[in-house]
Amino acid sequence: MFSLFNDMSSKTISLLIILAGIAVSGLIFFSDFGNKEGEGVVPQKNNVYIQDGKQIIQITAKGGFEPASTIAKAGVPTTLRITTEGTFDCSSVISIPELKIRQNLPSSGTTDIDLGVRPAGVLDGTCGMGMYPFTIEFK
Amino acid sequence: MTESKKQIHNFHVNGMHCKSCVLVTEHTLDEIPNLSDVKVNGHKQTVSFRGDFGEKTEEEVASELTKILSKKGYTLSVEKKNLNKNWEEFWIAGPLAVLFVLFFVLLQKMGLVNLMNTNEMNIFTPLLIGIVASVSSCMAVVGGLVLSMSATFAKEGEKVRPQVLFHVGRIVSFFLLGGMIGAIGSAFQLNAFGTFSLSFLVGIVMLIMGINLLDVFHGVKRFQLAMPKFLSKQALKTSDMAHTITPLLVGVATFFLPCGFTQSMQMYALSTGDFMKGGITMLAFALGTFPALAVLSFSGIGLAEGRNKGVFFKTAGIVVIAFALFNIINSFVAIGLIKNVFSF
């Protein structure tokens, strides 16, 4: 009987570890917990400016894209300006499927990508493997 | 003694979990002079043959033949062995696998890449990048493949050689292909669809291998990648070659797997415009990834046999399945079919 008790409690511990592990992984995976600068809740960083009549959206690519969400103006010729600083990870390959853009970025430097004139809506982008996201909401 | 006087014996075979196992069992039993008409049924996990064993009981015959078969990893029994014990192993394998995946996730969130501040390249840069890459999310791609392949080989009793061949294949091919990229000045770049197909395919293969490692759904074993039986019968003579070529090819194939680090290194190799520089860049990178991959691939040694092997294979199976799903989902995100799921 004693061994049965031992058996039951080790199974319970087992189950608790599994559930806790999945819960924590889920929290980390699917939420903003631990993200660099809690985007979404914090007011819009000023990474959008006008230069020579074009709307420039400035994003840094290193271990992800920063800022991960941008709000910009619709109906204006727009250029995405990506800066890399010793970037060798997945963010060195930028992908915007909707515009069929898939490009290798240099490990350090600035790359301009023409987005054209965007209508209102959200543009989704990711790194080459799909695990670092960024969005640009055109209003 | 004429053939017809020999009795037909039927036994259960334990330990056959792949198509080639069936052939190996048949082949091994065929070579025993006393036996004839050997037929192994992979679905039912049974064998029948004609043979004369005098006064021996079925159990004695089974244990005698098991001595020969056990060298290949199989045993014969009169009764169907009870498989119930397997489910209990999940109680240990489950938490272990979850902890491993949690460790992987935490590693990603820590953002190791941001610790690297290399704006200029020296000979150590690709090495360092390789080390960072091997504990990054690329681990889910290459590491998952390595784990699933080496655990699957370990199950068949091959714990060392395929793994060594894999690493040799990977490191040497990285040097050669890196050199070619440098010399030719253009990389082997897959477009968006090509990348999607490759990641998806690798993900599916890993998923099947992971499920097979669990040893639970025997029906899935039919889908295990194997040559058709008629080809295998010939290849059994050269089964050594199959066991040699496959790990080598998989090692070479890792050069093309979508991993941001690998690709950015390839871009740099391209920019060197020189065979040696390009080759050494990719060689250093591959060497940087070696320690972490070695841990994954050689974990089978010692664990693949012995009392805890069931737990080891189940843990490996769960981790491989998790990585496989991660890759499959990400491949759909990267091509824009679904919205971003995982955010690091």
Q: Can you lay out the helices and strands and say which pair or pack?
A:
The complex is a heterodimer of chains A (139) and B (344).
Chain A: H1 2-30, E1 48-51, E2 54-61, E3 65-66, E4 69-72, E5 77-85, E6 93-96, E7 101-104, E8 108-117, E9 121-127, E10 133-138
Chain B: E1 7-14, H1 19-30, E2 35-41, E3 46-51, H2 58-69, E4 75-77, H3 85-109, H4 124-134, H5 138-155, H6 161-184, H7 192-214, H8 229-235, H9 239-253, H10 260-272, H11 275-298, H12 309-334
Antiparallel strand pairs in B: 1-3, 1-4, 2-3
Helix pairs in contact in B: 3-12, 4-11, 5-7, 5-11, 5-12, 6-9, 6-10, 6-11, 7-12, 10-11
Structural description of this entry:
The complex is a heterodimer of chains A (139) and B (344). In chain A, strands 1, 2, 3, 5 and 8 form a five-stranded mixed sheet that branches. Chain A has a five-stranded mixed sheet with strand order 4-10-9-6-7, with no helix packed on it. Chain A is α+β, with helices and mostly antiparallel strands and 139 residues long. Chain A folds into two domains: 1-31; 48-138, Cupredoxins -  blue copper proteins (Immunoglobulin-like, Sandwich). Chain A contains one helix and ten strands. Chain A is elongated. Chain B is of the alpha+beta class and 344 residues long. Chain B folds into two domains: 3-77, Alpha-Beta Plaits; 86-334, no CATH class. In chain B, strand 2 (35-41) and strand 3 form a beta hairpin. Chains A and B meet through helix 1 and strand 9 of A and helix 3, helix 4, helix 7, helix 10 and helix 12 of B.
